[in-house]
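User: Could you go from structure to sequence for me? I need the amino acid at each position, not a summary. Structure tokens:
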């Protein structure tokens, strides 16, 4: 059985994938997020970004004084399809009729 160490359990990002990023010169939290998807799962990085920063600091890729989390984007909490489906649609979302 292989030993896979997960850094981001939501998106299945492993320590080996982080080392792969570092070997290719991707060393910021934002670059690693974009390359691997780390931090984009249901917990939105609450469980993994601090660990990522710790790993980058330990490997000398990140200065603790300048460490920054990535920009959180809405929705900040997981939203169910039922919630989205129940949202009311205003007139601005009604498609315009095409002439003709
Ligand atoms: S553990 Fe990384 S997004 Fe949830």
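Assistant: Here is the amino acid at each position, in order:
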């Amino acid at each position: 059985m292989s030993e896979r160490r997960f850094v981001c359990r939501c998106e299945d990002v492993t320590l080996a994938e982080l080392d792969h990023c570092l070997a290719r010169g991707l060393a910021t939290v934002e670059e690693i997020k974009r390359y691997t998807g780390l931090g984009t799962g249901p917990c939105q990085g609450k469980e993994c970004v601090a660990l990522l920063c710790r790993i980058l600091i330990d490997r000398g890729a990140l200065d603790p004084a300048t460490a920054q989390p990535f920009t959180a984007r809405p929705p900040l909490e997981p939203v169910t399809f039922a919630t989205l489906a129940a949202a009311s649609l205003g007139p601005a979302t009604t498609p315009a009729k095409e002439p003709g």
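One structural detail worth keeping in mind: The chain has one domain: 6-88.
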